[in-house]
Amino acid sequence: MIYPENFEYKIGFDAVRRMVAERCSSPLGQMCVDRMAFTDDFETVSRLLGETAELKGILEGDNDFPSGDIRDLTERLRAVRPDGTHLSTAELIDLRVSMSTMAELAEYFAKRRDDDSATPYPLLDAVAGGLTVFPMLVSAIDRVVDRWGNVKDSASAELAEIRKSLNSMNGRVNTVMRRVMAAAVRDGIIEADTSPSMRDGRLVLPVAPMHKRRVPGIVHDESATGKTVFIEPAEVVEVNNRIRELRMDEHREEMRILVALTTELRPHLDTLIESYGVLGMFDFIRAKAILAHDIDATMPHLTAGQELEWYHACHPVLRESLERQGKHVVPLDIVLTPQRRLLLISGPNAGGKSVTLKTVAIVQYMLQCGLLPPVYDNSHCGLFGDIFIDIGDDQSIEDDLSTYSSHLRNMKFFVTRGSSRSLILIDEFGAGTEPQIGGAIAQALLAEFNSRGMWGVVTTHFQNLKKFADETPGLVNGSMLYDRQAMRPLFTLSIGHPGSSFAIEIARKTGLPESIINAASEIVGSDYVNLDKYLLDIARDRRYWENKRRDIREKEKRVDQVLERYQDDAETLRRRRNEIIGEAREEARRILEGSNAAIERAIHDIRRSQADREKTLEARRRLADERRELTQGETNEHPAIARLPKRKGRQTAPKTTEADDRPKAITAGDHVQLDGAGTVGTVEEVRGKQATVIFGQIRTTVKLDRLRPTLKQPSSGASRTASFISTATTDDSRERQLRFKTEIDLRGMRVDEALQAVTYYIDDAIQFNAGRVRILHGTGTGALRQSIRQYLSTVPAVRRFADEDVRFGGAGITVVEF
Question: Which of 63, 73, 58 is CA-nearest to residue 27?
């Protein structure tokens, strides 16, 4: 339900309807515009929006879409239902053009169906299914009428014979007329450059009145001035009579042919009218798609329930008006949720509150009329069963209504008819009467709206309503931002805190005497004057801590992700290590078995040669020792692997003895390795739980629990240290290059975090010779996108940057080329 009756006029939708009609190319499309109406049926709205979105995509990317002419003949087709009636040649030409357009549209969608009848444009293909192609009728019209709208000579044998006789008679009359004119020139009756004229289809001679008796014949007419008389010479009267007869015969034959052709069309009239309806629908959808392109409208995420999450919403009429003036509209970002359904907007006068209200009304109404809304495609839109507005002054002398009475009448209607599926939009809530009681009534009404679960946007200046919205679940404050320094409105909506009316500041800016301003401030008291400032300070602090909490949650989430990835990598490394060790042991066994065979053969040879038995036994013992050393420690884990974290739930307690648990004490002079590194150093001094260790030419203090004793000797000289640092740096660079991806996701980051991340990322991209990368920053308010692009413009290695193709992310992704 829509309320009041002049709803479209109040929100400016009548201008939108006119904009759509202007983009239609036929009266059929304009009739569809007139029938366009509000609906809350999800399937209908989804289909209407989908059709427009499909055709918008076609028009923006496919130049082959038929743009044929549509000439409405539906009324004439209904008129020729009775036998004996016929279409004129001009109407037949229009019908032929329209049938060609029908055939082109049907062929376009037929070519885009695959073998399984699948198509990239299912909704438009369903609309095109109502078109019928009439190749036989097109051929019939082409057989009878030429492209200039004349009946062809070949339409019938009789017509061909009549026109042949006409041509012969015209030749005779021309010959006779030339002979008569030559004699009249010789006699001085007419001038030599005189030309014959036509009167009532007969060839006549223009003669001066003084000579009309000298030319025998029939006077047919005279000029308006009376200075010329038009005479049909007697010599051509008979020939002209014959021509007149042939003309009538020609007309009768043409009528007979047109009646016969219309009779041939008559069985198909109903199908033709239906196809004309489909043509009108395509004209209407095309007009909506063109309008959507012109106002940057897109297909949002649509839900059947109540939802309102819009980004970059614009009032299309205001946008068009400002663009004509060389200005730009400030877009609206607004989010209402089931927990915050009623938005109470406050702020200075002329700050954009009413425009925000009308923008919400017209965008939602456009959506539910089947027009793509002017919002970003990441917006989420739901459907409402009712849209009620109370905007402007509805006072009426005839109805005995004052301004405030008209507002109360509207509030009564809202309370009586409103429900959880209603969207209410109220401007200057509570105004028009004594402020204290007006504010009280407004607060009571707001509580009633909230108890009924209604959604809406309300503008006000009343402090009690701001406080009520701040304390009541289901309500949320909002404000239109105002630049205190420049003393000008920013026309930007901020949700979450109330706004100030800035009455004192605006009065001072307009030049009101300072004495009056000071007197007014004293009357209301400093506490009242400063109340708006206190509210703004509280709101600012709240936003600060909310941002802090959000940042902490995001960082915790990233830490969990990194830990999860680290645990996965550790588990993979541990598994791969066991596989490699197993393969190595198997290979060692094979080698040892081969060696055993060779040794046994050697021992056999020794025995045969009567060798010393003790020496043989000693050789066997050495062989067994080597075998034990090779197989020893199969279950022992490498220290570097053991330090890797194990997944929760998969850890098993190793069997250790008390002696194993006691670490060896580290003293001065011991050779040690730093936990996780291979460089060997010498302990210079031990102090409590820390030790001073010399690694090459570097002396450092390390905790004892990070050191482990080793039997390796430290390498000497700075070359070892330099080699170690160079190797570590090279390995780190190689590791970063292996992990480098041509895409970075910055969504959810603050601007300063994102700029730091993108700085490192661009440096790596340049270092690793990346030709092209993608930066995902989302659309949102556009602040992150703008900051990133400002930074990119300062990087000399960046050749260009632009939005990604709309099919792969559009304005939410910046593509950078180096």
Answer: 73
Q: CA nearest 227: which of 206, 255, 208, 252? A: 208
CA angle 505, 508, 510 (to 5 degrees): 110
CA 411 to chain CA centroid, nearest Å: 37
The one-character DSSP state at 650 is: T
C-beta of residue 218 within 8 angstroms of C-beta of residue 237: yes
**Residue 217: CA atoms inside 13 Å, Cβ hemisphere, count?**
27
Which own/partner pairs from 100-104 qualify as long-range (CB within 8 Å, at least 24 positions apart)?
Answer: 100/68, 100/138, 101/66, 101/68, 101/69, 101/70, 101/279, 102/131, 102/132, 102/133, 102/134, 102/275, 102/278, 102/279, 103/133, 103/134, 103/135, 103/138, 104/66, 104/68
366-419, pLDDT tens digit by residue? 999 999 999 999 999 999 999 999 987 655 445 445 667 778 888 999 999 999
Cα separation, 285 vs 65, whole angstroms: 13
Q: Which residues share a beta bridge with 707?
A: 674
User: Under a CB-based contact definition with an 8 Å cutoff, are residues 444 and 312 in contact?
Assistant: no
More confident residue, 284 or 532: 284
Closest by CA position to 343, among listed 236, 427, 265: 427
Question: Would you give the end-to-end CA distance of the chain in angstroms?
Answer: 56
**Between 533 and 416, where is the model more confident?**
416
Length of the chain: 818
> Is the distance from CB of 70 to CB of 98 less than 8 angstroms?
yes
Closest CA to 310 of 238, 252, 359, 245: 359
Q: Give start and end residues of each alpha helix (H) in 112-193.
A: 122-128, 135-144, 157-186
Gyration radius of the chain's alpha carbons? 47
pLDDT tens digits along 221-271: 888 888 888 888 888 888 888 888 898 999 999 999 999 999 999 999 999
Question: CA 567 to CA 572: how far, in whole Å?
Answer: 9
Number of alpha carbons in the 13 Å side-chain half-sphere of residue 750:
13
